[in-house]
Write a structure and sequence with these properties.
Strand content: 25-35%
Oligomer: single chain
CATH topology of the largest domain: Jelly Rolls
Number of helices: 6
Low-confidence stretches: 1-120
CATH architecture of the largest domain: Sandwich
Order of helices and strands: HHHHHEEEEEEHEEEEEEEEE
Number of strands: 15
Shape: globular
Helix content: 10-25%
Number of domains: 2
């Protein structure tokens, strides 16, 4: 804050005193609320350094403080909930209008944030027309749909956190190497064996940064596999960024140094045209163009896993949460 020298003339001081006596202070306080709210919004939007190859990604989630750039809002999206509401600003006296305006803005917003707020807008899986929809709200895993793979880890349902509703799938992975822990489904096959869209909401604690996001460590998060040779496609994390890969004789891959956000739910969608060998990936409804690839060897897939399938040496235990899983023949998006 800059400090200005007091240069008011005596007559002007008298006007200010009279204004204060007549109630101008209320207007000043309301102005202070607006200024404080704007400042908080800017702080919430402050994002981290930009990643690579994301076209058309929005700026950060907050106000003027969000950095510009093609993917600034994706590498380290700001958490809008961190911005204080006007009623929490010290000395605020006129917050009704601000609250009403915020409520209208929220009701009018159709853009999911990737966190709990957009989860509240999703209707859940009851009555869904998707090929597969799982929100875990029964509180028990449907063993007719899901098979658990728990090599050096466990999958449980708990109410620790959820992208929507009450329950999510908690994937716990022990330290070590070459581990597969997750939920596997074959319900959508063979119908979707030549192509599918898979969406998951995922929560990764920031404490996992040194284990999951650095070094020569590869963790698949969405993993499609076929019985034919080299019939594996996956979307995950390797060496500090998101990666698409197709396991073939040359282990083909597309990668970027862009990381998903930590300590909040994010929406990850995987598009696979297995018949043509084309792949796409989306983070919070924005395509990660650096991961786009066409023309990998065609194959059929017959299972799909949500969880952690990893290669490399992982020094600590890991805990991730998955929620609102959807598999379908067409683009799903984050709002449904």
């Amino acid at each position: 804050m800059r400090h200005h020298k007091d240069s008011c003339a005596p007559g002007l001081r008298a006007v200010l005193v009279l204004c204060a006596a007549l109630g101008c202070a209320k207007g000043a306080a309301s102005g202070a609320v607006t200024a404080a709210t704007g400042s908080a919004g800017g702080g919430a939007g402050a994002g981290g350094p930009g990643g690579e190859g994301v076209a058309g990604a929005p700026a950060g989630a907050g106000g003027a403080g969000a950095p510009a750039g093609a993917d600034a809002g994706l590498d380290r999206p700001g958490i809008a909930d961190d911005a204080r509401a006007p009623s929490e600003v010290a000395g605020a006296t006129d917050t009704g209008a601000a609250r009403d305006e915020a409520a209208r803005d929220d009701a009018a917003s159709d853009t999911p944030s990737g966190g709990g707020a957009d989860g509240a807008r999703r209707a859940g899986c009851v009555g869904s027309a998707f090929a597969l929809c799982e929100d875990f709200e029964s509180g028990a895993l449907d063993t007719k749909v899901w098979k658990l793979t728990q090599n050096k880890g466990t999958v449980t349902l708990d109410a620790t956190r959820a992208a929507s509703g009450k329950y999510s799938a908690h994937v716990h992975v022990e330290p070590g190497s070459d581990t597969t822990v997750g939920l596997v489904e074959s319900k959508t096959f063979p119908t979707l064996k030549t192509g599918l869209h898979a969406r998951a909401f995922i929560y990764i604690p920031g404490a996992m940064t040194t284990s999951l996001f650095t070094g020569d460590r590869h963790s698949r998060l969405i993993y499609a596999q076929g019985a034919t040779p080299y019939g594996e496609y996956a979307l995950g994390i390797w060496n500090g960024g998101l990666i698409q890969n197709h396991y073939s004789k040359t282990d083909d891959s597309q990668d970027t140094k862009m990381l998903p956000p930590f300590d909040q739910w994010f929406c990850l969608e995987y598009e696979l045209d297995a018949a043509a060998g084309n792949v796409r990936a989306y983070l919070n409804d924005v395509e990660i163009t650096a991961l786009r690839h066409d023309g990998w060897p065609a194959t059929n897939v017959d299972t799909l896993m949500f969880g952690v399938d990893r290669f490399g040496s992982f020094p600590v235990a890991e805990d991730l949460w998955f929620d609102d899983l959807v598999v379908d023949a067409a683009r799903i998006g984050c709002a449904r």
